[in-house]
Amino acid sequence: MEFMSVEHVAAMNKLLQDAPDVRSACTQLSRARVVSYLLTGGPNGEEVHWTITFGDTVQFSLEEASSPDARFVGDWTQMIRAVSAGRGGAQVDAGVSIDGDGSVLAGINTTLETARAVATVPVEFPSV
Q: What superkingdom does the record give (predicted)?
């Protein structure tokens, strides 16, 4: 299964849907939140959108968010390199900027880490 493919997003969302730890972490948020990624230079030169919704649980989407609380903007190739390196324990700068309310990120960090612990599954990364 390829990283952030339709199949990968579906697998993560299935794991997250009823995860008690994730649902509990979401109750600590002041309100529902949406964080998105806008990555240029994706496959076939297209823009790539990733959206993370924090509500009753955490859910991922490949759709563009109309008005996210915060949006990471960067290069798809650099993001793939950074995430792939992170899976191997290395740190590589994703090279993203943040549009919107960056303070939202501090509020969702614990919830996002809880979701990652539940929904990180083996994937193949695109060749970049």
A: Bacteria
**From CA 31, how far away is CA 57, in angstroms rounded?**
12
Report yes or no on 18 lying in a domain: yes
* Residue 95 within a domain: yes
Q: Residue 105 is part of which domain span?
A: 6-118
Per DSSP, the residues of 40-77 read ES-GGG--EEEEEEESSSEEEESSPPSS-SEEEEEEHH
pTM given for the model: 0.93
CA distance 89 to 11: 23
Count structural domains, the chain: 1
